[in-house]
């Protein structure tokens, strides 16, 4: 046992006591403003502001079962001036905590003084003489690990892991179906990403197990801490590939004291339309993701800006008022020239339309009188809606895709099979259409072309953010990347992904084709995470054989855990029966951890039926993530998740059913932190045959 374990446990107890005192002080703030009957609006406003502040502070101070303190740094020669302990000692933790004298008991991990805890090395000790790591479970201190700098550190190999014991303990903890934070075990290359400057686009390449997702989330928390103003007002958005993924990561930021970050899929950010998680077939998704859709949709809107086909004559009292085709042609041309968005021009078209009608009867008619007298007449309404209708994105896309003639008019170069791919039956209730996820960027583009409808009450407005974090960016099409650029207030973004795991309809060969579609106000920053923490060496070795064929020349991450169980291959004549047996074995081996059965989409029902018949309880991926200890997950949804054990069923079928089949298999083989079993009746892909 470490000689200071007892004294450090006492310090942790003191820190938790101070934390409880802080919670009590926060609750007492609600008594500062009491508003009874007759209270002023100002008093009510102050009360609401204080209650909001208290709720935010209480959320930051809620630890649950998480460790409050995870390390200590001791500085040389007494450390900084007038801050902290006289001997330059700082305890690093999840949130900042002070005692009754306002002396720091715990320093927030994002504070500048804490940077050395993550960055110091033997060659660059950053003023430290010791770095101490704590291994804790809730309030209980289990172990202490010290790193000494100076003369002792010179004999250590440069670049070793920071707090290796604490890191391995964290890696070997059973998965819960939710992503946990790594705030106590952040490594140097990860910290470089987290603390990178705010402005511009930061692109992070990271293979499986390098922690790119959780690093991106820690970066969001760090940026909110260091740039509270203006980011808290501008907003921070985290975009994930699907709602299962968002459920998986949703606890990370609250555990770091940041509960105000918005988590969304791309479909979620398109307001005013109902969009499902369903994607169109790959060939259709490729068409809809191509930048040619920008011109296609602009032309589609333009086809709704048209002169009348015949002159219009309408009665007004005892007179006939007239407008000719040529006059409406002039109005349409002028509206196109003057206005950037479609809906904004409607009022101009109406004013010109009624102005021409009034002039047709002489100079004694008032235009406003004519408008009031005729705006409810059916022929007038029909004429205006023909010339320049007010449209919502759903109405526009419904009309466009509902007519092969309109599709061809918007882009005469489309092949007949492409026209058929875009065509869909026209709905009589466009606002009730359940659009596919592939339609989301098209609805968003149409919204940008149309602009806000008069009286829409902000529904048509595009919400922008001070910083946007995007995970699995390698799967986004150019049109989807264009959506993200539109929501960036000032070009500040963090985008993370792995080119080797690109399995979507659009496959980017490198980061250049991704960054081309993102804000370019500043040169992009590039970082690469090269160390794999999650996956044991033998499992990474198997996945690397797939990677060498799927993406030749791309290096896999270096696994820090060289040992571990070898992948197991189970050849069988009955896949269903073997899956049942293997799942039972793996569940016992990793208990209380979790097991994911990763299958091709065509085998989901077969595998679920086998498990159900065998009485094995299992879950499915849903809005709540992977709550069950056993889950059946289609390979299309498994990206970004981590489990203790993975049972990969029929690799050959996964490869055959996915357009990027080898990359999908690579994803499936890199989800487990401990064990991988491969069950197959069909011959294995060649690179898996030992």
Give, in spatial order, the strands making up the sheet with the most strands. 3-4-2-1-5-6
Q: What is the CA-atom radius of gyration, in angstroms? A: 31 Å
Mind describing the biggest β-sheet?
6 strands, mixed
Overall tally of structural domains: 5
Q: What is the approximate shape?
A: globular
- What is the residue-mean pLDDT, rounded to a whole number? 87
End-to-end gap:
45 Å
Structural class: alpha/beta
How many H/I helices? Answer: 26
* Number of DSSP E strands: 23
- Proportion of helical residues: 25-40%
Report strand %. 15-25%
Subunit arrangement of the protein: single chain
Please mark out the parts with pLDDT under 50 across 5 or more consecutive residues, or reply none. 79-86, 152-159
Can you give a write-up of this model?
This protein has a six-stranded mixed sheet, sandwiched between helices. The protein has a six-stranded parallel sheet with strand order 9-8-14-15-7-16. Strands 19-23-22-20-21 form a five-stranded parallel sheet, sandwiched between helices. The chain is of the alpha/beta class and 690 residues long. The model is unreliable at 79-86 and 152-159 (pLDDT under 50). It folds into five domains: 5-160, no CATH class; 189-259 and 468-531, P-loop containing nucleotide triphosphate hydrolases (Rossmann fold, 3-Layer(aba) Sandwich); 274-302 and 392-450, no CATH class; 312-387, no CATH class; 537-688, P-loop containing nucleotide triphosphate hydrolases (Rossmann fold). 39% of the residues lie in helices and 16% in strands. α22 links the parallel β17 (531-532) and β18 (558-559).
């Amino acid at each position: 046992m470490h000689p200071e374990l007892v004294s450090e446990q006492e310090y942790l107890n003191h820190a938790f006591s101070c934390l409880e005192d802080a919670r009590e002080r926060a609750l007492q703030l609600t008594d500062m403003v009491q508003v009874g009957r007759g209270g002023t609006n100002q008093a009510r406003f102050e009360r609401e502001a204080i209650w909001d502040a208290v709720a935010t502070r209480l959320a930051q101070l809620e630890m649950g079962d998480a460790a409050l303190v995870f390390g200590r740094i001791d500085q040389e020669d007494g450390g900084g001036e007038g801050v902290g302990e006289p001997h330059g000692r700082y305890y690093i933790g999840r949130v900042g905590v002070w005692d009754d004298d306002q002396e720091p008991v715990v320093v927030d991990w994002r504070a500048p003084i804490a940077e050395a805890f993550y960055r110091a090395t033997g060659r660059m000790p950053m003023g430290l003489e010791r770095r101490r790591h704590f291994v804790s479970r809730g309030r209980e201190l289990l172990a202490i690990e010290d790193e000494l700098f100076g003369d002792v550190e010179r004999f250590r190999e440069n670049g070793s892991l920071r707090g290796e014991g604490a890191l391995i303990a964290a890696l070997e903890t059973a998965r819960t179906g939710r992503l946990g934070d790594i705030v106590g075990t952040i490594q140097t290359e990860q910290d470089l990403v987290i603390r990178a400057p705010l402005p511009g686009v930061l692109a992070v390449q990271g293979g499986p197990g390098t922690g790119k997702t959780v690093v991106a989330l820690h970066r969001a928390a760090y940026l909110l801490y260091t740039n509270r103003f203006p980011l808290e007002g501008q907003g921070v958005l985290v975009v994930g590939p699907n709602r299962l993924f968002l459920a998986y990561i949703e606890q990370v930021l609250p555990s770091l004291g940041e509960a105000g970050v918005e988590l969304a899929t791309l479909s979620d950010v398109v307001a005013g339309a109902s969009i499902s998680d369903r994607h169109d077939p790959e060939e259709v998704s490729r068409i809809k993701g191509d930048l040619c859709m920008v011109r296609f949709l602009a032309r589609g809107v333009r086809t709704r800006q048209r002169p009348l086909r015949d002159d219009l004559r309408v009665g007004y009292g005892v007179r006939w008022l007239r407008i000719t085709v040529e006059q409406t042609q002039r109005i349409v041309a002028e509206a196109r020239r003057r206005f950037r968005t479609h809906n904004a021009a409607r009022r101009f078209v109406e004013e010109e339309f009624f102005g021409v009608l009034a002039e047709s009867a002489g100079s004694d008619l008032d235009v406003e009188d004519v408008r009031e007298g005729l705006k409810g007449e059916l022929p007038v309404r029909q004429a205006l809606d023909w010339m320049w209708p007010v449209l919502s994105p759903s109405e526009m896309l419904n009309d466009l895709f509902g007519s092969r003639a309109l599709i061809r008019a918007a882009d005469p170069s489309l092949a007949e099979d492409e026209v058929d791919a875009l065509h869909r039956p026209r709905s009589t209730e466009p606002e009730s259409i359940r659009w596919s996820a592939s339609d989301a960027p098209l609805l968003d583009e149409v919204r940008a072309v149309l602009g806000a409808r008069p009286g829409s009450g902000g529904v048509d407005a595009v919400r922008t953010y001070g910083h946007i974090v995007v995970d699995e960016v390698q799967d986004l099409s150019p049109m989807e990347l264009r959506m993200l650029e539109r929501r960036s207030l000032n070009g500040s973004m963090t985008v993370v992904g792995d080119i080797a795991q690109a399995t979507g309809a659009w496959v980017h060969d490198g980061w250049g084709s991704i960054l081309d579609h993102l804000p370019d106000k500043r040169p992009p920053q590039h970082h690469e995470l090269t160390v794999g923490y999650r996956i044991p060496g033998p499992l990474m070795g198997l996945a690397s054989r797939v990677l060498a064929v799927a993406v030749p020349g791309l290096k896999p991450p270096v696994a820090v855990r060289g040992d571990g169980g070898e992948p197991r291959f189970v050849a069988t004549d009955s896949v269903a029966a073997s899956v049942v047996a293997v799942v039972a074995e793996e569940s016992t081996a990793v208990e209380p951890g979790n097991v994911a059965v990763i299958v091709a989409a065509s085998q989901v029902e077969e595998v679920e039926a086998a498990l159900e018949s065998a009485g094995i309880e299992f879950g499915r991926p849903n809005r709540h993530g992977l709550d069950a200890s056993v889950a059946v997950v289609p390979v299309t949804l498994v990206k970004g998740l981590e489990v203790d054990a993975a049972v990969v069923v029929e690799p050959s079928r996964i490869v055959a059913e996915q357009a990027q089949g080898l990359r999908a298999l690579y994803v499936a083989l890199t989800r487990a932190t401990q064990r991988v079993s491969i069950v197959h009746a069909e011959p294995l892909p060649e690179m898996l045959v030992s």
